[in-house]
Amino acid sequence: MMDAKIFFNDIYKSQDQPNDLLKAFQQKNWNSFSELDLPSVKHEEWKYTRIKNVFTEAIQYNQDKTDFSEEELSKVKLPGTANANSLVFINGIYQPHLSTLTDGSDRLIIKSLSEASTDEDADFVNEHLGCSNAYHPDGINALNGSFAAHGLFIKVKKGKELSQPIVIYHFSDSRSGFRFSQPRILVSIEENTIATIIETYHKIGNHQSLTNEVVEICVEKAAHFRYIKIQNEGTDSNHTGTTQINQLGKSTAHAVTISLSGEIVRNNLNMVMRAEFCESHMYGLYLLGGKSQVDNHTIVDNAMPNCLSNELYKGIMDDNSTGIFNGKIFVRKDAQKTNAYQSNKNILLGQNSSANTKPQLEIFADDVKCSHGCTIGKLDEDALFYLRARGISEQNAKALLLHAFAADILQQIELEELRNYIDSLISERLTITI
Amino acid sequence: MKHMLTINDLQARIEEKEILKGINLDIKPGEIHAIMGPNGSGKSTLASVLAGRADYEVTGGSVQFNGKDLLELSPEDRAKEGLFLAFQYPVEIPGVSTTNFIKSAVNEKRKYQGLEALDAAQFLRTMKEKMKLVEIDQSLLSRSLNEGFSGGEKKRNEIFQMAMLDPKLAILDETDSGLDIDALRIVANGVNQLRTKDNAFLIVTHYQRLLDYIVPDFVHVLYNGRIVKSGTKELAFELEEKGYDFIKAEVNEATA
Predict the structure, then answer these.
(1) Domain layout of chain B by residue ranges
(2) Using N-to-C axis directions, what is the helix angle for A394-410 and A416-429, rounded to 10°?
(3) Which entry of A8, A297, A322, A337 is 20 to 30 Å from A375 by CA?
């Protein structure tokens, strides 16, 4: 089998040369990728997730350029987002002609990363592009960075509230072979803004896919930012994604990650609090069946005092599926008066399902409140009996309890129609028949 | 009249411990039976075994409920056949509201009986009517089931659920425990209003107190896994006055 490094080397060398800023960025990333290579299970951060094989398979990938009709794309529109700013990526590349913006350029700027790195946003790009790199020295982030020049730049302008969320649709075309994509997005949420970004993924075709994505978001002073990631791509879709939210000024960031299917899925979510009085919220729900493996790695990095973070991830694993949670909380020396809470709860339904959970707190300040907890268990037998003793069938009683277990994550989705839609997907999966 | 419930030489254990050592009891429609006894005599085990809790293993005997072999039925089918257990310790279930859950329960039972599901308006009407019986508030029923409820609210919620499901046989497992006198009166009043000539109640209690409000036709004393004495409501007064010691003494004398 061909070596991934040699393979990507050919592609790397043959890509069009971007402007100097991006060229230097790509070169730096390529050097790290060459040095680090793809992580094996010996890599501490990839202990439970065998990702190398997926990348090795991906190197037979299909590089044909493809297109989808608007009709095909409209089939997967998320409910409640009919008027949203809709950004379409196909195979990792942004498609302006398929995207629609409801908010005008006085509020929302969408342009290519190569454009942003040569105009008035060049300083921003230079400073923040690649900010997630240091947290993920594993070759995968660097591989995305080696091809970052095709990336997208999003800016929500100072003092503006978006009238509609930004919904990013990622399509992978696997109709004629394994599809490998590497979306790259840099986002600037300026001062005093309110904005929501929703990402969702779809595969069209019967072959496998792998999406290796990096999204880096900077949230400035007094901004309120919400982020929702919905994964329901199907059983043969693989995903390695990093979303980093840097809170540069006193701000609020709120993220919800919903994973309902996938072969191997790795979500890195980092919240880096670089200013005082920031608030970060991270919620996640993974409802898995078959052989799905979903790995959520989160980092909360408190660099400054007086910040609050709250984190709750819940998993339900059926069949042979595996849920993995790793939650790091760093409280740096100066970050006094930090409040950081973390909780991960898992329910195992399948005989061969499993959960791995690892809280990791590294605290260097002495006046902080931090807590963490994790549970792995079965459904509460007493609760199950109580419901059955009222005449509710075992299957429905289980479904009711599981639905209730998931409910406090779903409630974190503010958009009602979207929340109801995800709720219905979950109910369908739990086969509630009443 | 035909028996509704016939318990014949029922024996059950939990893990290796024998708890029920041969219970015999007949209940007819329209009757109220009280089961009394000291702690650890097997009262709650009897209630749990009848409702179908899997922790207990039935090792002998039989239970007929309206002509069916009760022990062969799943807990949900027992409920749908008309058996109801008011729990001694109602379970708190976060994220499930009483309203939603009781609606599922009512409609599953109706489906089992071959009846149409209640529509939203019919359900609401029934609910309002039954809420009055136990003086329970709508807001409580919209909240997560029993979560953060006081002891009295939990027990009233049990009786509310009983009213909604309209069982043939209701087993009240120490429903009076942890209730103040007002809550006790409300719960008893609910039960009395639900009483008809066609349904029956089995009231499991440690104290005679509840029986001041719900007057039983028969009182049985359970001791050491067996019914050792049966009588009318006067037996309850006697127990209240003398305590359980005289029963224990009688039994020990008989077996000595």
Answers:
(1) 5-255
(2) 150
(3) A337
